Amino acid sequence: MAEETYGGVYADAEPVRDRRRPPAHRRPSPAHPDRSSPGEGTYGRVREGLRAYRLITAMWIRSTMAYRASFVMTTLGNLVATALDFVAILLMFSRVDVLGGYRLPEIAFLYGLSATAFGLADLAIGSMDRLGRRVRDGTLDTLLVRPAPVLAQVAADRFGLRRLGRVTQGACVLGYALAAVDVTWTPLKVALVPLTLLSGGLIFCALFVAGAAFQFVAQDASEVQNSFTYGGQTLLQYPPTVFAKELVRGVTFVLPLAFVNWLPALYVLGRPYPLHLPAWVAFTPPLVAAACCAASGLAWRAGLRSYRSTGS
Amino acid sequence: MDGGFLHDGGSPQEDGFIAVDRVEKVFHVRKRTGFLRSERRQVRAVDALSFTVARGEMVGYIGPNGAGKSTTIKMLTGILTPSGGRLRVAGIDPSRERTRLAQRIGVVFGQRTTLWWDLPLIDSYRLMHRMYRIPDGRYRENLDRLVELLELGALLDVPVRQLSLGQRMRGDIAAALLHDPEVLYLDEPTIGLDVVSKAKVRAFLRELNAERGTTVLLTTHDLQDIEQLCSRVMVIDHGRLVYDGALAGLHEAGDSERTLVVDLERELPPIEAPPARVVRVEGPRQWLAFPASRSAAPLVARIAAEYPLVDLSVREPDIEAVIARMYAERTSA
């Protein structure tokens, strides 16, 4: 390619002397050198990212708390709006006793796991879907001139504590399900519940990040992203038995949404998974979550790199 | 001692605090030509651009829209990766070490704010304090000084979205300087500002450069910005540097012309007064172009003596025209 040739030609034309460290007496005196200690490599970047994320979310929380009444109202509103979701399921069960072979407490268990996991992801990085807009109006550039990873800045932007409403609602349904569901609890099953919530949250986070990465290429794709995140979350509220096998296969092997709740929940409930997978698969969500996070991280890097080479 | 190292730009310490060496940026633009077909076209936004800026210099960077100004600034700040060539700012390769460079530069985009839109100004500053790891004492000192110089005292608790454009610009400039950057990039810092705000911003920048020795690179459409601030101006057109030097020399280099607009008593044939030539006639009004390097006085005296003169005015060449001529000459040469 032409670019590479040019780079090569220039490097040959003029030997590159390293001027990065001028003699000490020449170095600018202001307090820069010791102030910046961002670590090198992936670990350092993650640490820097978490630090920036914490700083920015803290700022938003402080500003939210300046208007406490408004915060309470919007959080309640958020809770009520998402609660209607479950009311629809309740209404359904006023007509039928069983849905796809599952009773209400079991459906509530699926719903609670999926809604809470999604709520946690939405709370943590729900602003990711604004990335396309930032690319379009050019405000992404303002994030690129700050000494912090862009992903953390985008994720923490407009951190909305009101989204606790969704988490609360999911947790309430889950609480009801845990009390009402007919399961003989073993330590393994007990441990699986929080593990599932955490992994599920991470899988949804990865989905948010991957969706945002896609918006670098297609800036109007936030609806596409929403269909996967919100749509996926709705899908998981129902047992896999009500869906076609192809769809179940798709969300197991292609887009691993099944690991958010179906596989571990069905193990807890003692139900067979429609695809005849070995039982230990129920314990793989943390691994799947880690893989998803790694993949979406790579996708993000690729997206950001393409933005920085094209500027659009 | 804060300024001792500042005015030794000529020493062999470095080729330039900002060193741009045959840098280019090629964009691939996809144009839709049919339902599914599209055409890929290369756009050379910046083409073999080379220049250096010494520490403490204040340089104006001008050119018509789409000339490559913003692309250059974006490469110098690490937002965009160059397609070729070599680029260093304070010894750092911007695209490779973006976050390390960010500690040492300040950036102000005239068209968009770097502040958090919905939050009070002071919240943005507090966040910068932590994010840039500015020592507490230095932060307070800088904030006090900037608030005083930029008259931000009454605005600190106002959400950014409620600020006027001029107020917001001052807020943005303060935000860009809290961490004592060695370089300040300003992309159209006076665009859309009223006369008073422009004057405030210019006065502040002059003082910043004189007292702190901050290197300033500013892009603008407003020639007055350059006249009042910059001893050096670089002109870019079609991604190439077409002029680099003092502002005064720009007119000569561009072989530019001033225009004398003459109102006569009645319609007359075109005035003959070489070296001026009539470029336009509209009823009793005539437009005469003459070299910008010549004085208008003898020409005016001559016309006044030979023609029934009612009124006249002299128009300075505008920057776009100067650059256009400059470029036309380069391509024809």
Automatic annotation (TrEMBL), chain A:
Bias kind Basic residues: ranges: 18-29
Keywords: Membrane, Transmembrane, Transmembrane helix
Keyword Membrane attached: yes
Coiled-coil intervals: none
TM segment ranges: 69-93, 108-126, 167-185, 191-218, 247-267, 279-300
InterPro entries hit by this protein: ABC-2_transporter-like (IPR010390)
The UniProt record lists the keyword Transmembrane: yes
Superkingdom in the source lineage: Bacteria
Region (Disordered): 1-43
Any Pfam family hit: ABC2_membrane_6
Annotated protein name in UniProt: ABC transporter permease
Biological source species: Streptomyces glomeratus
From TrEMBL, chain B:
Signal sequence extent: none
Main location: membrane
Compartmental location: Cell membrane
Bilayer topology annotation: Peripheral membrane protein
Alphabetized UniProt keyword annotations: Antibiotic resistance, ATP-binding, Nucleotide-binding, Transport
Highest taxon listed in the record's lineage: Bacteria
Keyword ATP-binding: yes
GO molecular function, one term: ATP binding
Domain (ABC transporter): residue spans on this chain: 21-263
Keyword Cell membrane part of the UniProt annotation: no
Stored PANTHER family: ABC TRANSPORTER ATP-BINDING PROTEIN, ABC-TRANSPORT PROTEIN, ATP-BINDING COMPONENT
Descriptive protein name: ATP-binding cassette domain-containing protein
